[in-house]
Structures are given as structure tokens and as C-alpha cells.
TrEMBL record:
<feature type="transmembrane region" description="Helical">
    <location>
        <begin position="167"/>
        <end position="192"/>
    </location>
</feature>
<dbReference type="InterPro" id="IPR006593">
    <property type="entry name" value="Cyt_b561/ferric_Rdtase_TM"/>
</dbReference>
<feature type="domain" description="Cytochrome b561">
    <location>
        <begin position="29"/>
        <end position="229"/>
    </location>
</feature>
<keyword id="KW-0472">Membrane</keyword>
<dbReference type="GO" id="GO:0046872">
    <property type="term" value="F:metal ion binding"/>
</dbReference>
<protein>
    <recommendedName>
        <fullName>ascorbate ferrireductase (transmembrane)</fullName>
        <ecNumber>7.2.1.3</ecNumber>
    </recommendedName>
</protein>
<keyword id="KW-0479">Metal-binding</keyword>
<keyword id="KW-0249">Electron transport</keyword>
<keyword id="KW-0813">Transport</keyword>
<keyword id="KW-0408">Iron</keyword>
<feature type="transmembrane region" description="Helical">
    <location>
        <begin position="212"/>
        <end position="233"/>
    </location>
</feature>
<dbReference type="InterPro" id="IPR045150">
    <property type="entry name" value="CYB561D1/2"/>
</dbReference>
<dbReference type="GO" id="GO:0140571">
    <property type="term" value="F:transmembrane ascorbate ferrireductase activity"/>
</dbReference>
<keyword id="KW-1133">Transmembrane helix</keyword>
<keyword id="KW-0349">Heme</keyword>
<dbReference type="GO" id="GO:0140575">
    <property type="term" value="F:transmembrane monodehydroascorbate reductase activity"/>
</dbReference>
<feature type="transmembrane region" description="Helical">
    <location>
        <begin position="133"/>
        <end position="155"/>
    </location>
</feature>
């Protein structure tokens, strides 16, 4: 009692609730930032691809398909499962998974098509760092897409054979992380292309590289945490 007034101290549950609120706000803000960065990077790439108008050349088609596939649709596919994602946070789990799969299939299809178009256009493929990381992204995207079918029916598989059902989810997350990470590294090396650098300038090009690294880190935080948690749970079986 001080000055006739009772001094109240916050209870532990209230304190924890306040911390959780701050954490949710922070994570939601990061999620919003990721969407903004995606818009800037994807928009810049599309602006560059369409700089000469229509019809698009093979290089421009490659840029459009791969950027939309990897860094718009597949990025949103990963974010759709986040509890802090704006457009999918209100969806039921089953609808989140459905949205995840639709976006992943569309994104993978565009990215694979864009890679094939470019490989057919070039005489020598996968020789540059951009191409090598693009190949890694292509392989892991394809494997992740196929592996995802097993992950989609992981519950049914798990009832029959406990380990493979759980393992398919872990590998699907792992393949997805590698595919998306490699696609961003490939994109950043692509930004170093002379035509792109001359069009946007060195400072803007480096800014786009930084923004790409930023939204990739934000997007992959939850999958990495989930992967580690499920891997530990799998090892402790």
C-alpha cells in the first residue's frame, strides 16, 4: 500500500500473454515485410523482362516464368502455412494445405518450364554460378514436388508404416528449403548479368540482391524451425 493506493503487479499469465502478443505482432510484421520485398523484387524483374515490349524473347520468358514460379507462387506457397500470414491466417488447416499445394504445383510448373526453355535456348548449360544454382533449384523443386505427394498422404502412410509417413514430411520440408534457397542464390547471380546491371545501375542491383536475401530469410525461418523440430522428433522415435 502506497499513498492509500494498492500497488498491483502483473500476474505471470498476463505477462506471458503480453510477450506472446508482442511476438505475434513482430512475426506478422516480418511476414508483411516479406510480401513487400517480394513485390519489389518480382516487380523489378518483370519490368526488366518487359522493357522491350512484346513479343518476349527466350531470356525474357525465362525470367518471367522463373521469377513468378519461384519467388511469387512458391514463396506464397511456403508463407501460406505460416500462422502469421495475412491472407491465409483465417483459413482452416485443410484449406491452408490445399492452398499450399495449388501454389506449389503452379509455381513449380512455371519454374520448371522457364528452366527448360532457357536450357533449350543455350548451347552450354549450367556452366555459370547462376546456372549451377538454378540446376540445384530445378532438381530439388522436382524432387520436392514428387515427394510432396507422399507427404500429402503422410497420415495414411503413417498408419500403415510409422516411419515413412513422418519421414516424407521431413524430406519434403528439407527439399523445399534447399530448392527455394538455391533459387534465390541463382536469382542474385542473375542480377549480376551485365544487361540487368546496366539497366538498373549497380546500386539498385545490389539493393535488389539485399532485398532478395531478406525475404528469403524471413520466408525460410518457419520451415527451418519446423524441419529441426520434426527431425528431432523423428530421431527420438
Amino acid at each position: 500500500m502506497e499513498n492509500g493506493m494498492k500497488m498491483e503487479t502483473p500476474s505471470a499469465p498476463a505477462f506471458e500473454s503480453k510477450n506472446e502478443y508482442k511476438l505475434r505482432t513482430f512475426q506478422s510484421s516480418l511476414n508483411l515485410l516479406a510480401h513487400i520485398l517480394i513485390g519489389i523484387v518480382v516487380g523489378s524483374c518483370l519490368f526488366f523482362a518487359y522493357r522491350n515490349g512484346l513479343p518476349l524473347g527466350n531470356m525474357a520468358i525465362h525470367i518471367v516464368l522463373c521469377v513468378l514460379g519461384y519467388h511469387l507462387l512458391m514463396a506464397e506457397s511456403i508463407l501460406s502455412l505460416s500462422p502469421y500470414n495475412g491472407w491465409s491466417s483465417h483459413l482452416r488447416i485443410v484449406d491452408k494445405r490445399r492452398a499450399h499445394w495449388i501454389l506449389q504445383i503452379l509455381g513449380s510448373g512455371l519454374a520448371i518450364a522457364g528452366s527448360i526453355i532457357m536450357s533449350r535456348h543455350k548451347v552450354t548449360n549450367w556452366d555459370s554460378l547462376h546456372g549451377k544454382f538454378a540446376l540445384v533449384a530445378l532438381v530439388f523443386t522436382t524432387v520436392s514436388l514428387v515427394n510432396g505427394l507422399a507427404s500429402l498422404y503422410a497420415y495414411e502412410i503413417q498408419k500403415l508404416v510409422p516411419l515413412p509417413g513422418r519421414l516424407s514430411k521431413v524430406t519434403h520440408i528439407c527439399f523445399g528449403i534447399v530448392a527455394f534457397g538455391a533459387s534465390t542464390i541463382s536469382l542474385c547471380y542473375g542480377f549480376q548479368n551485365n544487361a540487368f546491371r546496366n539497366f538498373f545501375g549497380q546500386a539498385n542491383t545490389e539493393t535488389l540482391i539485399g532485398l532478395s536475401a531478406g525475404f528469403t530469410a524471413i520466408i525460410l525461418i518457419n520451415p527451418c524451425i519446423t524441419f529441426v523440430a520434426r527431425l528431432i522428433a523423428l530421431c527420438c522415435m
